[in-house]
Specification:
C-type_lectin-like/link_sf; C-type_lectin_CS; 23% strand; C-type_lectin-like; alpha+beta; 5 helices; binds calcium ion; C-type lectin domain-containing protein; signal; nine-stranded mixed sheet; globular; 202 residues
């Protein structure tokens, strides 16, 4: 008993302290090695929203959280990663703080056409927010609740074609049907295709 609790006590204590200190040193080293890097926002909270690196490219596309095509007061987003029916496309845009697109001038249509072509999706169909679901034949933009003020229908459209299952065409898509440019067509809202969202500044 004296061996442990007699004159050897100081040396036992000393050894324990040395072991403990070494263990702590290892823990300190380990915690430094595996600490996650701090978020940028934590480092520079004031610079987080300044978008210092979101320069426009030749098309006027802003790249920050999402690539957006600038067109006057609007910004457009191309939904090209999955196809969705008109309602789901609407939901996607709204979830991200946008609307399905509206087009109010030839200039906007031309800019979108160029953007779609340059993005490699010139043969695809794209939903807009145009619809005559509320009243057959009276199209308006869900994006702003207004009737169409500019139209760019393809020849023979809108034709409200009736399918075998009884569904008619009530949603407005953009489609370069016969190389005459990105014209408009009414299409069944249940069809799944790409879509265009817009950000409005008004
Ligand atoms: Ca219709
Ligand atoms: Ca049609």
């Amino acid at each position: 008993m004296n061996f442990f609790f007699g004159k050897n006590i100081p040396s036992v204590l000393l050894m324990s302290l040395v072991i403990l200190a070494n263990a702590q040193r290892r823990d300190v080293g380990r915690s430094k090695k595996y600490s996650p890097p701090p978020f940028e926002a934590d480092l520079e909270p004031s610079g987080y929203n300044q978008c210092s690196s979101c320069n426009d490219d030749d098309l006027g596309v802003t790249r920050w959280t999402m690539p957006l095509l600038k067109s006057g007061e609007k910004k457009y987003y191309l939904g090209i990663f999955f196809k969705a029916n008109w309602f789901k496309a609407q939901q996607y845009c709204r979830f991200h703080g946008m609307h399905l697109a509206s087009i109010s001038s030839q200039q906007e249509n031309d800019k979108l056409e160029q953007y779609v072509k340059d993005s490699g999706f010139g043969r695809e169909h794209f939903w807009t927010s145009g619809t005559d679901l509320a009243e057959e034949g009276s199209f308006f933009w869900m994006a702003n609740g207004r009737p169409l003020t500019f139209v760019n229908w393809n020849a023979g459209e809108p034709n409200n074609f009736r399918y075998e299952n009884g569904e008619e065409e009530n949603c407005l898509e953009l489609w370069n049907r016969d190389d005459k440019g990105l014209k408009w067509n009414d299409s069944p809202c249940s069809f799944e295709t790409f879509f265009i969202c817009e950000v409005r500044s008004d």
